[in-house]
Amino acid sequence: MKINQDTVLRGKKVTLVPYTAAHVPRYHEWMQSEELQRLTASEPLSLEQEYEMQRSWRDDADKCTFIVLESGRWPGQAEENSMVGDVNLFLTNAEDPTVGEIEIMIAEPSCRGRGFGKEATLMMMAYGVRKLGITKFEAKIGQENVASICMFKKLHFKEVAVNSIFQEVTLRLDVSDQERQWLLEQTNHVEEKSYAELKQPAGVLDT
Known about the structure:
This protein has one domain (7-191): Gcn5-related N-acetyltransferase (GNAT) (Aminopeptidase). The chain has helices at residues 24-30, 34-40, 47-59, 79-82, 116-131, 146-154, 177-186, 195-199; strands spanning 7-10, 14-18, 63-70, 83-90, 99-106, 136-142, 158-163, 168-174, 191-194. It is built from 8 helices and 9 strands. Helix 5 (116-131) links the parallel strand 5 and strand 6 (136-142). It has a 9-stranded mixed sheet, with helices on both faces. It has 207 residues and is of the alpha+beta class. Helix 1 (24-30) crosses helix 3 (47-59) and helix 5 crosses helix 7. The longest helix is centred in the middle third of the chain and has 16 residues, at 116-131. Pfam families: Acetyltransf_3. Keywords: Acyltransferase, Transferase. It catalyses: N-terminal L-methionyl-[tubulin] + acetyl-CoA = N-terminal N(alpha)-acetyl-L-methionyl-[tubulin] + CoA + H(+). N-acetyltransferase that mediates the acetylation of the N-terminal residues of alpha- and beta-tubulin.
């Protein structure tokens, strides 16, 4: 989705930036992990396939993705050294474009359990509500991923289905006026900035 290709969302713990080709090698490295493949129900891809996937994330109208960076490291350190995971929204229901399926992955083990996933998810949800017109969120999570299921329940999601074949739990949140207000309050510290401006050093203009 091209709507967010120049969008940076800066929170206290994490910063969300568009997924670009520069992020692919580190992302590809993460996805060699059998644990991450299992938790995300993913098949390992070649590096070239990963670049193709990144291009589809950028161009497809039914996918929105951000790379999650640690706010304490970027700007300052190189982005690939600040990457901790990704957060995605899929518009999976052609008949109802207000439904968004949300996914969060904190790939760096040292960054788990520190509230990064929670803040990134809240930021993506607020972005989906404000910019994409999402009013219903779904999350599909492997039954063994107890930490992720607990986190989504803390964000007011309710369990609505269990698929024993895929060993997957579906959670849902309908964004009422009250939920919308709560969501925007949870993210009122988030700053939206231009990716192009943050990437280039101060005082250096493109020629």
